[in-house]
Every structure is written in structure tokens, then in C-alpha cells.
Amino acid sequence: MKLLLNWLLSALGLMIVAYVVPGFHINSFISALIAALVIGLINATLGFFLKVVTFPLAILTLGIFWLVVNALMLRFATWFVPGFRIDAFWDAFIGAIVLMLVNLVLRKLVREPAH
Questions:
Q1: pLDDT digit string (tens) for 46-96?
Q2: Which of 3, 7, 1, 57 is nearest to 29 (CA)?
Q3: What CA–CA distance (Å, rounded) separates 28 from 52?
Q4: What pLDDT score does 114 carry?
Q5: Phi–psi pair at 88, nearest 5 degrees
Q6: Residue 24: helix, strand or coil by DSSP?
Q7: What's the pLDDT score for residue 80?
Q8: I need a surface site. Which of 18, 25, 34, 75 has the fewest CB within 10 A?
């Protein structure tokens, strides 16, 4: 159930980013669901590998370089998802930042209360 909720929240986050960031386009909620799944798979495989390889650079830039990696992963996902398009790298970079913040807020809102 938690996995399903995270998937729905990720899709909702993508829809919010598409609304806020010019150049970040999602045609429908179905496209957002597929994009959330693809982005999750890419981040779990290729994204993980790139973050391990670029770890020294991330340390030098205080983690900012990982935003570049996240932007690249978003752009890569557009190749596989019809109805999901990012116009330019900077749109993906800003989208990665906004998506990170939106996901943080959404997960805080639905988090289980501490006992």
C-alpha cells in the first residue's frame, strides 16, 4: 500500500512541476503515472550508478552536482514516456529542484503520525 501511495504522490508531484515549470510538459495523469514509474526505475538503476561514480564531484559541489544527475535522469525518462516532454536541460534542472521540494512536501503531508 505504501508503494502505491508513493507512486501516486510521485505522479502528482510531476503534474505540479509541469504546472509550475515552463518547458516541463505532461499531457495527462496517466502519462504522469507512467513517467513516475519510469523515473523510479531509471533512478534505481542508472541514477544510482551515476551518483556513485560522481560522488567525489558531488562532495566538491556540496551535492549540487546531483541535481544535474537528476535533471539528466528526467530528460532520459522523456525518451520512454509518450506525453512527457522537457524542452531544455535548464527546464529539467529547475524541474528536478521543484520536484524534489514538491515530493518532500507531499510526503510530509501524508506521513504517518509518530506514536
A1: 888 888 888 888 888 888 888 899 999 999 999 999 999 999 999 999 999
A2: 7
A3: 33
A4: 63
A5: -145, 165
A6: strand
A7: 94
A8: 25
